[in-house]
Design goal:
alpha+beta, 8-stranded mixed β-sheet, Nuclear Transport Factor 2, Chain: A, 10 strands
């Protein structure tokens, strides 16, 4: 498997992602390169999710119809990174755009679903820190009842890591505390955004 991935990467580098490589192989080569070099996923507010070298793996890759210059690709990704000092571990299916000229690259974020879920987690964290019940309620899939005492307890809880899994339009997050205990959060996709269906405060 490792030899095959290396061969694909060398082929793409040698021929500039030409038609000599299939669309799935070109997508694998691009993801393999991102895995080796690391990647930054930009988020709103100037924040970035940093994926260091060796921490992104494509466990399965496919590609839809397209031409020699652009096509949609699909991959089951496993990665580990850090946002605002918080470790993030992720497994999920992603769809991303590959564009090829002299070489191939991902156009936009390599993990848009992950980026949207992390954005929701950060918005929740910011609302908790501010004690803003209205901002917290806006992140719910359905109108919640925010208990003031629960809000204060949640605001004082430190986050030591997020363990995220996305399947379809649902996400499950294990939010780890420094003592190792985890709070389970569930999110659902509502339009283009992700909203909390449980675990909000």
């Amino acid at each position: 498997m490792i030899r095959r991935s290396l061969a694909i990467a060398l082929l793409a580098a040698a021929f500039g992602c030409s038609s000599l490589a299939s669309s799935p192989d070109r997508a694998r080569a691009v993801l393999g390169e991102l895995g080796r070099t690391g990647v930054t996923i930009p988020l709103a507010g100037g924040r970035t999710l940093e994926i260091p070298p060796g921490k992104l793996e494509a466990m399965a890759v496919d590609a839809g119809p397209g031409d020699r210059r652009a096509f949609d690709a699909f991959g089951q990704l496993s990665l580990a990174g850090r946002i605002d000092g918080i470790p993030v571990s992720y497994v999920g299916n992603e769809r991303f755009r590959i564009e090829c000229g002299g070489s191939c690259r991902v156009e936009g974020p390599v993990a848009p679903r992950l980026a949207a879920v992390v954005q929701a987690l950060l918005a929740r964290r910011d609302a908790l820190a501010a004690g803003d019940a209205a901002a917290l309620s806006a992140l719910a899939a359905k109108e919640p009842r925010i208990d003031p005492d629960a809000l204060r307890v949640a605001a004082d809880r430190e986050v030591a890591g997020w363990f995220i899994r996305v399947e379809g339009d649902e996400a499950v997050v294990g939010e780890a505390a420094p003592d190792g205990k985890q709070k389970r959060l569930q999110l659902a996709r509502v339009g283009e955004a992700w909203r909390f269906s449980s675990g909000l405060p």
